[in-house]
Structures are given as C-alpha cells and as structure tokens.
Amino acid sequence: MLRQLNSNFLEECTAFFGGGTLITLLYGEYRLSQDIDFACPAGSGYRFLRNQVQKMGCNALFHNTEDIEIPRPPRTDQYGIRFPVCIEGELIKFEIFCEARIQLGSPSRPSWAPVACLNEIDTFAEKLLANADRWLDSSVECRDLIDLCFMRRTHPMPQEAVQKATDAYDVLPSLHRAIRRFQENPQERHRCFTALEIKDRPAAIDGLDLLAQDQGFGPTQRAADEQHL
User: Fold this and answer.
1) What angle do CA 16, 6, 85 make, to 5 degrees?
2) Does residue 62 register a pLDDT over 90?
3) Which Pfam families match (predicted)?
4) What sign results for the dihedral spanned by CA atoms 36, 98, 39, 70?
C-alpha cells in the first residue's frame, strides 16, 4: 500500500512514515502490525494536508487505489486524519497524526521505502512518548516497550532522542515503570508476545535487558520460551 501513496504530496506536507509498522519493517518484521502511521508537524504543512483531504478525500493521499478499498471517508480534525483501508480482506488503520510535541528532523530514506520516513532520533522519541502515554493500557499489549526493546537490541538509544522526548514531557519515569513491570510479570510478557505474534522472544528479552541496564536495573528472569537455545 505504501507504493500507492502520493509520496510527493506527503513529503511536501512534511508527513513522514513512522510508528510500529516502520519499526517492524526496519528491524526484521518481528511482530504483527496492522497500522499505517504518519507524523506531520503542526503548522502550515498539516493545515495544507488537512485542507486537501477535506477537499479531495483520500484521492489527495493516493495516486492509485487499485486493489484497495476505503470503506468510509477520512475523519479529519486538529489532531489528525484517520480512516480504514481494506486490502485483500484485511482491515488496516491509516492515520496521519498532527505532531505538536516535538519538532521533527529531516526524514530518512531507506532503500526499500517508497515514502519518506521518520529518522532514527525521531522514531525513538516518538516511541518514548507513546510508551509514556499508554504503557498501562492493557489493550496495547506493551507494543511500545517491545518496539523499544528491538530497537535497543540493535543500537543504543540516542541521547538526542531522549532529550527531545523529555523536552515534551518527562518520559523516563514511565519507561522505568514499564520496564520493571514487564520484567517482573512473565504472564504479561507471554500474553503480549502471543497477541503480537512475536516468535523471537529471546531477542525481545535481550533488548529489554539492555534497556534495563541503561536504567540501572538487573536482567530479566527468563521464562523457558525466552531462553536462547
């Protein structure tokens, strides 16, 4: 579906692909993700984007809607643009949210991506903010923390990302509590890993332990399916 989007228009509005689906694509498709999320800074870019969608509907966002169904018109407001997309019988939630908390930097352009993407610093910062917002929401299945685990497993969290998120609001206490809660609750880990179809559970715990180490915590006591063979 990304290839059917009007990438030039989205980039003109400074709307960049991000969220959990970007992270899963970047880090080995380690979990189920059925959302397509873009971030667009508050200001002239988002105003132009919103106005065009209000005038043209989803035609403003896609240059080709072959093989996709959009069941209803997009909902637009000051916070974002949202609508469902159905592809081969599978329903995907599409959202462009208006980012007013942090200033987004220049996008990244992975060779596989047909659209501009959030850069590494902004991807980390957005996940820290998302975790702070919803780490206690059981319906989220700890996906923000798990995404941070897989990112941290590959490379350290950039201090610039931590600072950028912290300038918006204090994300570290929520991160600490989310890490400790996840480490101390193997039943919750199993529930979340199962719901998100995560197969490589040892890798997830590797990342969790690196996050824990960064915050001065000890390693996780692993369940049997979280052990390396």
Assistant:
1) 85
2) yes
3) AbiEii
4) positive
